[in-house]
């Protein structure tokens, strides 16, 4: 698990570890079902929920894999290996287990041990606390993802456009310093005004924190990498690693919160979403090694449109409930259209 795979192998072999984790995870999910219910019906129910959660995570993460691959291809080999080993451990253990516990610790003002006890013995109470924290989480994660997408489109050096009438003006206006920050803040203010005063203030505070986190990751990564001997050698180091970790966390917010609609058991949620995270890792490796992003020129555009759509959906969830399945289908649909457009472009060349 600690090395980047060898180029040229068949596509299914990229998913070897994902298949292994799927089998182990579903078996573990069944054991959790037996531990909580002591019945075969409970085993099958927990087994099924783990499988559904894994599919949900995969459907929500096509764009995540593409953006990971785009960043990963510029990283030095040792940092590629670190992201694909340490990074997946952080994604599975940190975001799917520690993060929900920390939310409960902060929201309920209790200790980590008590939060873990709630998760294990009082899942309904645990789920209620998680749902109560939904508003600031969506504002924070939505703002970070929006900045990721806007930074891609507001790029003066971007010369390949998929939807030209949208992207060409954005690339041209990128010369205006801070325009992507202004756009993100304007959208955040608009949504906060649609909420009751207290909720609107909480939404805006979390949105500003999401913006500051994005800027902090950019600045911190640049400062750390600039300590290296040359800018070229540093371009794919700690900064890129930090960026990808926070990006993965932002993608995970929606899936973790939405998973509580299917199960209130944190261990089942961690298993199901962890399985999905392994497929994201496998897809990332395959995209990097096969050069898919350069071969299909609009695939990356589709991923960033999907990220922008996800950020707006996360904002909209502060007002209305939007099923996670719809979110996943929208993202997959945008990437699918971009893929077809790439094929047509290749055929016309």
UniProtKB/TrEMBL annotation:
Name of the featured protein: DUF475 domain-containing protein
NCBIfam families on file: PRK14013.2-6
Residues annotated as transmembrane: 14-37, 43-62, 83-113, 133-154, 174-196, 202-221, 228-244, 256-280, 301-319, 325-343
Protein keywords: Membrane, Transmembrane, Transmembrane helix
PANTHER family associated with the record: MEMBRANE BOUND PREDICTED REDOX MODULATOR, SLL1022 PROTEIN
Family matches, as InterPro entries: DUF475 (IPR007427)
Domain of life of the organism encoding this protein: Bacteria
Coiled coil: none
């Amino acid at each position: 698990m600690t090395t980047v795979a060898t180029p040229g192998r068949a596509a299914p072999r990229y998913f070897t570890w994902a298949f292994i984790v799927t089998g182990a995870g579903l078996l573990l999910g069944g054991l959790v079902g037996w531990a909580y219910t002591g019945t075969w019906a409970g085993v099958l129910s927990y087994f099924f929920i783990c499988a559904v959660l894994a599919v949900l995570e995969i459907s929500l993460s096509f764009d995540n894999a593409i953006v990971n691959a785009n960043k990963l291809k510029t990283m030095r080999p040792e940092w590629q290996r670190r992201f694909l080993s340490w990074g997946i451990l952080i994604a599975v253990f940190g975001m799917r287990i520690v993060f929900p516990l920390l939310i409960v610790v902060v929201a309920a003002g209790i200790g980590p041990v008590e939060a873990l006890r709630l998760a294990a013995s009082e899942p309904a109470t645990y789920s209620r606390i998680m749902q109560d924290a939904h508003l600031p989480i969506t504002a924070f994660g939505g703002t970070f993802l929006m900045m990721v997408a806007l930074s891609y489109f507001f790029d003066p050096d971007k010369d390949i456009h998929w939807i030209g009438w949208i992207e060409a003006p954005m690339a041209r206006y990128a010369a205006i310093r801070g325009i992507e920050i202004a756009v993100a803040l304007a959208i955040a203010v608009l949504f906060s005004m649609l909420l009751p005063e207290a909720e609107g203030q909480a939404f805006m505070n979390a949105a500003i924190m999401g913006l500051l986190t994005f800027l902090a990751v950019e600045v911190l990564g640049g400062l750390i990498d600039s300590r290296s001997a040359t800018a070229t050698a540093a371009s794919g180091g700690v900064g890129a690693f930090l960026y990808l970790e926070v990006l993965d966390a932002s993608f995970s917010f929606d899936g973790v919160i939405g998973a509580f609609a299917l199960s209130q058991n944190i261990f089942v949620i961690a298993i199901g979403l962890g399985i999905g995270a392994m497929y994201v890792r496998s897809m990332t490796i395959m995209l990097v090694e096969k050069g898919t992003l350069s071969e299909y020129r609009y695939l990356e555009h589709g991923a960033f449109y999907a990220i922008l759509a996800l950020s707006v959906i996360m904002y909209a969830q502060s007002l209305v409930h939007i099923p996670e399945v719809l979110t996943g289908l929208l993202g997959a649909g945008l990437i699918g259209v971009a893929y077809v457009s790439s094929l047509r472009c290749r055929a016309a060349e």
